[in-house]
Structures are given as C-alpha cells and as structure tokens.
Amino acid sequence: MGNTSEKRKRYHAEFKEMVVELYQTGTPVKQICSEYGLSETTIYKWIRKQKPVKLDDGGSFTPEEFLNLQKELHRLKEENEILKKAMAIFAKK
C-alpha cells in the first residue's frame, strides 16, 4: 500500500499546456508519458480540462474557464446580498 505521507506532484500551468499542445500536434500519449514521466490518466485529465466547449453562438470556453466563471458568479451574488442588507440598514435610519 502507498505511504500516506507521500506528496502528490504538482505541475505548473505552463507545463500542463505544453503537454496538451504536444498531444494536439500529434504526439502519442504513450510517448509523452515516457518522455515526461507522467501517467496516461494525468495527461487525459489535462486534455479534458483544456478542451474547449462549443457554444451555439460560435463561442467556446474550457471547463476551467467555466469553473472560474461559476466562482466569480458566486462571489458577486454574495456581494450583492451584503449590499442589499446594507441598504436595508441605511434605509431605516
């Protein structure tokens, strides 16, 4: 069994983008795995995260961009609720 004290390896976004770009230009996943010491699962996860989703209006976004937009929307909703409560407090005075 694996040692729970082992840390997972972390890779920079630039490295992940380079690996995905290698895949997109035709380099086989097995070759990328052997050259960079990565697992196929890791590479396919990075590919899936960077694969753009097409919109009806012709635009596109990546799943990562979608998550960032969701986080931003959540933050803005919280700010909006705070402002509503502040307005209610000041309206009473």
UniProtKB/TrEMBL annotation:
It comes from the Bacteria. One of its GO terms (biological process) is DNA transposition. InterPro entries: Homeodomain-like_sf, RD_transcriptional_regulator, Transposase_8. The keyword Coiled coil applies. Residues 66-93 form a coiled coil. Keywords: Coiled coil. GO terms for molecular function: DNA binding; transposase activity. PANTHER family: PROTEIN DISTAL ANTENNA. This is Transposase.
